[in-house]
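A protein record pairs a chain with a discrete description of its three-dimensional fold. The following entry can be read in just this way:
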Amino acid sequence: MTGHRFQFISRVLGRVVGDRPPRSSCDKNAGPDVQRSTPSDFRDIPGQRPNFLGIGAAKAGTTTLARQLSGHPEISFSRKGKELHFFDEQPITPESVAHYFSLFPSNIAVGEFTPSYLFDPKCRDQIRDVLGTETRFIAILRNPVDRAYSHYLSCRAQLE
């Protein structure tokens, strides 16, 4: 059963751990010599650059999926945990980016899960500027009524 789970995870990540899927013929960046859109301020910063981000709704299963992914030998998360909130809680400078990159171990697929990146408009541009256009996203959504009820139960349990 475990082998099937890891095969599925590899397909979900678009084979970050292997081959890249072919680009669409209507992709404006389809040329072989296209440069990443990372600004020069961030391009040469050493360290492990994350190549995937988990985004989505709270109480939608991001923790469970991150736990499942972390069991794969070729997938790693930050040394500080699942949610770093790097792109939504601080100004982005070359120094902060260097620190951010230093939080990740070297591996084939490296990333973080911060659900709020999906909803914060400034995150989109900052993610593109720091990580480039090759970053993969794992979006997790949930029925809004079920999510709200789960959030209510979680809050209620914390009060008890």
